[in-house]
Amino acid sequence: MKSTLKNMVTVLLSITLLASLGVGAVNWLTLEPIARVQANAEREALARVVPASGGFASKGASDNGYGGRVELIVGFHPDTTIYHIEVLTQTETPGLGTVMTEEENLLLRSFRRRNPGEMKLSVRKDGGDVDALTGATVSSRAYIEAVGDAYNRLSKMEGSEEQVEQDIEVHSGATKTHNDE
Questions:
Q1: CA distance 101 to 16
Q2: Structural domain of residue 112, as residue ranges?
């Protein structure tokens, strides 16, 4: 084959088309398994955040993290004090913002056994009631915003415990995403 502009463009377009088809096929094949893994992870997180003595859970999110979106699930006692918080997704800086995913981190300790409705939901340096992670103030603010979002969602839930459980499933992303509301 003679090396001409037409031949080079044809070969380049063919390679690009084949690569795009390959990427598309892999994406299509992995969509369902990834969704199953994410749903299982959310169910496991839900089990960890709801108190054994009874309570509620709600999902919250913030798009204002240093690395982007922070999603979490918050477990509440019946009196709406926080039992536990699990981070579901985050893309924060390793070793700084990612500390929010560690057990007993400073942010979680600032919220545990407290009612967010009775707190000033901002970091102490902004005059609030929450201790920020060292070197990760933006990530801390996003975490706080997501906790506030979860609390607001819980506050809006009405009806029986069964209805609340259905609402929690919807808010956990099992059947509906945060942006679908």
A1: 39
A2: 47-180
